[in-house]
Design brief:
Blueprint lengths: L2 H13 L2 H7 L2 H17 L5 H10 L6 H10 L4 E2 L5 E4 L2 E2 L5 E5 L2 E5 L2 H11 L2 E7 L6 E7 L2 E2 L2 H4 L3 E5 L17 E4 L2 H9 L5 E5 H12 L5
Antiparallel strand pairs: 1-2, 2-3, 3-5, 4-5, 4-6, 6-7, 7-8, 9-10, 9-11
């Protein structure tokens, strides 16, 4: 891991300490969280409230759905709607965002560009990321198998950009920083984007972004 990726990883963990939060909630909730993540790949959608309640009951957990929802929500691990239904769990969302991931015969949505690149490494399955460049609106297609980029000739010039200043302690990461983590079509586009606000923006090559995302998300499934 390069020093640049290591520093960015530390910075993101400071903003969103998913692994730390997952670990402190105990083994039962950790497994539930992993089941929620796996559902996106296995079924193409997030587990419903009813399905989560079934998991709670099957596991013999004394806690209520509301109690577990509060734990997951307060630790910014799962995003819920106003009526208590789960709508997202990093790196996935049930909202129609610009980043799609085709995996295991399903199309799912990722919260941001980094999240999209992390799905194949997380689950060890081939995947295709379909998105767009935030600046030029040109299409983005990345074919992956784990951390390996299968279409490097076509996609290798792609960059990933992040606006760190978008992080907001008053809002969950899904609605703040994630909205400003994007694909940039090539080096020139990325450098021009960076120059507009170098104090708050950072860019990464595609390989750096895959490494960055994998190191952040893969531990959640271990």
């Amino acid at each position: 891991m390069s020093q640049k990726v290591e520093q960015a990883l530390e910075r993101l963990i400071h903003v969103l300490p998913l692994k730390e939060n997952q670990a402190k909630l105990g083994p039962e909730i950790k497994r539930l969280h992993q089941d929620i993540l796996s559902a996106f790949v296995e079924t193409g959608q997030i587990m419903s409230k009813a399905q989560i309640m079934e998991k709670i009951k099957a596991g013999g957990q004394p806690a209520s759905y509301d109690a577990i929802k509060t734990l997951l929500e307060n630790n910014d691990m799962v995003v819920f709607s106003e009526n208590g239904e789960p709508v997202g769990a990093y790196p996935f969302t049930s909202e129609k965002r610009e980043h799609k991931v085709l995996i295991n015969g399903h199309q799912v949505y990722a919260m941001c560009a980094l999240d999209a690149l992390s799905v194949s490494p997380m689950f060890g399955k081939p995947a295709k990321v379909v998105s767009r460049c935030r600046v030029t609106n040109e299409p983005v297609n990345v074919e992956m198998d784990g951390k390996q980029i299968l279409n490097m000739d076509a996609a290798g010039g792609l960059y990933f950009g992040i606006l760190w200043a978008a992080a907001n302690t008053c809002a969950c990461c899904a609605d703040s920083l994630c909205m400003e983590m994007m694909f940039l079509k090539n080096k020139t586009t990325a450098e021009n984007w960076l120059e507009a606000d170098p104090a708050n923006r950072e860019i990464f090559t595609l390989k750096e972004a895959v490494d960055f995302g994998a190191r952040f998300f893969v531990p959640l499934m271990e």
